[in-house]
């Protein structure tokens, strides 16, 4: 159930250049589904001195026993710059969990594919798949090794295959290259993915080619997070409704439903 609540920051660490892992107390998020997101006020003090609109962040991880939750983010503008400077003991103003997350399918071939900061909503998914005795194969791609901020955390939940554009970690190629090789040898896989739009479009095409079910978590600017402002439309293959809102109807969609 969505709530507006205050959360105390436990830690806020720079794990790679300009990439931060923020942990906060949030028993309200114990039941958050993988793929859901939060809207956080990013003023300098959590309320004022910064962007008026909240910023969306995927739920990176939760710990039910400790009553904590995490986000992983990159400093891109004033809002995330403010958030990166927040300290332990300070209070966040949060709305969430929001949106529709991944639908977990019982399959012997679960695949996770994350590009760049698209890994943020996928760690919780990997953990839940592991808890359900599924063994995902995890493809993580980025521009360089500095952008692969969470690879080691995924390793405890499944086999990880890394790719980078410059070859500084893993194979020097785009993520879709080793993923297609896997799909050729493993039919009827289920792919859970998040990342840049071109990557997701490519995965949608691979899913169609190899008869793999593909779920995509779309990255959009979501001002309200509730579908009220109508600021994050995505065109879908639906004769009754041409557009859906990424924040309210997604952010996770079946890839075959999206007009790419």
Give structural notes.
The protein is 18% helix and 33% strand. The mean pLDDT is 93. It folds into two domains: 3-97, Elongation Factor Tu (Ef-tu), domain 3 (Beta Barrel), CATH 2.40.30; 110-257, 3-Layer(aba) Sandwich (Rossmann fold), CATH 3.40.50. The chain has 260 residues and is α/β, with parallel strands linked by helices. The protein has six helices and 16 strands. It is globular, with a radius of gyration of 18 Å.
Task: Produce the secondary structure layout.
Elements: E1 3-16, E2 19-25, E3 37-40, E4 55-58, E5 61-63, E6 68-74, H1 78-84, E7 91-98, E8 110-115, H2 123-131, E9 137-142, H3 151-154, E10 159-164, E11 171-172, H4 176-185, E12 190-194, H5 197-210, E13 213-217, E14 233-235, E15 243-245, H6 246-249, E16 252-254
Parallel strand pairs: 8-9, 8-12, 9-10, 10-11, 12-13
Antiparallel strand pairs: 1-2, 1-7, 2-6, 3-4, 3-7, 5-6, 13-16, 14-15
Short description:
It is built from six helices and 16 strands. By secondary structure, it is an alpha/beta fold.
Which key terms come to mind for this protein?
Rossmann fold; seven-stranded mixed beta sheet; alpha/beta; 2 domains; Elongation Factor Tu (Ef-tu), domain 3; 6 helices; 260 residues; globular
Structural class: alpha/beta
CATH H-level homologous superfamily name of the largest domain: Nucleotide-binding domain of ferredoxin-NADP reductase (FNR) module
Say what the CATH topology of the largest domain is.
Answer: Rossmann fold
Tertiary shape: globular
Summed up, the helix count is 6
Largest sheet: 7 strands, antiparallel
The neighbouring-strand order within the major sheet is 4-3-7-1-2-6-5
Q: Alpha-carbon distance between the termini?
A: 31 Å
* Estimated share of beta-strand residues: 25-35%
Helix content: 10-25%
Order of helices and strands: EEEEEEHEEHEHEEHEHEEEHE
**Nearest-angstrom radius of gyration?**
18 Å
CATH class of the largest domain: Alpha Beta
- Count of strand segments: 16
Low-confidence stretches: none
Q: Give the CATH architecture of the largest domain.
A: 3-Layer(aba) Sandwich
Average pLDDT for all residues = 93
Tally the structural domains: 2
């Amino acid at each position: 159930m969505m709530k507006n609540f205050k959360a105390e920051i436990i830690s806020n660490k720079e794990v790679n250049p300009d990439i931060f892992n923020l942990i906060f107390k949030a028993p309200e998020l114990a039941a958050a589904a993988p793929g859901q997101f939060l809207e956080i006020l990013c003023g300098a003090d959590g309320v004022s001195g910064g962007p008026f609109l909240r910023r969306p962040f995927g739920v990176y991880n939760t710990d039910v026993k400790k009553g904590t939750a995490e986000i992983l983010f990159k400093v891109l503008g004033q809002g995330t710059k403010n958030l990166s400077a927040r300290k332990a003991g300070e209070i966040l103003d949060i709305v969430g969990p929001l949106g529709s997350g991944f639908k977990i399918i019982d399959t012997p071939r679960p695949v996770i594919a994350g590009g760049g900061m698209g890994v943020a909503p996928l760690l919780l998914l990997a953990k839940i798949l592991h808890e359900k005795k599924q063994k995902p194969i995890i493809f993580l791609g980025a521009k360089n090794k500095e952008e692969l901020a969470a690879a080691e955390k995924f390793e405890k939940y499944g086999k990880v295959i890394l790719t980078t554009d410059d070859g500084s970690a893993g194979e020097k190629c785009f993520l879709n290259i080793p993923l297609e090789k896997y799909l050729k040898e493993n039919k009827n896989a289920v792919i859970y993915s998040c990342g840049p739009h071109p990557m997701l479009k490519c995965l949608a095409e691979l899913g169609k080619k190899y008869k793999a079910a593909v779920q995509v978590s779309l990255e959009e600017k979501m001002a309200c997070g509730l579908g009220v402002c109508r600021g994050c439309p995505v065109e879908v293959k639906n004769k009754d409704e041409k557009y859906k809102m990424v924040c309210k109807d997604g952010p996770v969609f079946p890839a075959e439903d999206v007009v790419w």
